[in-house]
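A reminder before we start the practical. When you read a complex entry, don't treat the lines as separate problems. The point of joint prediction is that each chain is placed relative to the others, so the output describes one connected object in space. Small molecules and nucleic acid strands, if listed, are placed in the same frame. In the example below there are two entries. Take a minute to note the order of the lines before looking further.
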Amino acid sequence: GAVVSQHPSWVICKSGTSVKIECRSLDFQATTMFWYRQFPKQSLMLMATSNEGSKATYEQGVEKDKFLINHASLTLSTLTVTSAHPEDSSFYICSASSVLFTDTQYFGPGTRLTVL
Amino acid sequence: AQSVTQLDSQVPVFEEAPVELRCNYSSSVSVYLFWYVQYPNQGLQLLLKYLSGSTLVESINGFEAEFNKSQTSFHLRKPSVHISDTAEYFCAVSDQDSFQKLVFGTGTRLLVSP
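Here is the predicted structure of the whole assembly.
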């Protein structure tokens, strides 16, 4: 099946620093990647959608200057949380789809971000 | 805009018993429906999906869900659960125009005990 990885699986950082999270499709070309955020005991909330080579489309209420998304290749997307603050602590999950299966997203295992 | 309601945050059940996880959605347009499962320390995995055609869809591990348009529901069922089915189950919906934009429910934790 289609496999998506994320790195790191968890990260702890100091307030004010920036953190980069990688999302990779290991065995398929991901034309579209998605970034979600999940708070404890809540559902996944879509943050942004990115197509390879294009600027990401952010959902309403998501600060594009704070959550920088880059989708430079068909197998890699990155999410950079800039000037992180404790309220940015959350579980960040990426998913990917392909032109071969546009109606299905394959999810990464998630990254736990803790900002001190 | 779509929304998904999973009323049960947790469902405890004994092994080999039947189970139903409820999912209701709200949408003004035609939708696609999905069930994802998340095992501990793993990413979400697609369990089954309804896109069109038969309203009863099945997964390879014995789960099934039925799309009921009149009741706007997509409940997940299994006639006999195993310990290994213990996981978090998420129902999700997308509209057929922007089908890649998934809206998730809050999830139901299925706890199967011996």
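Discuss with your neighbour: The CA atoms of residues 3 and 26 of chain A lie 6 Å apart. What might explain this?
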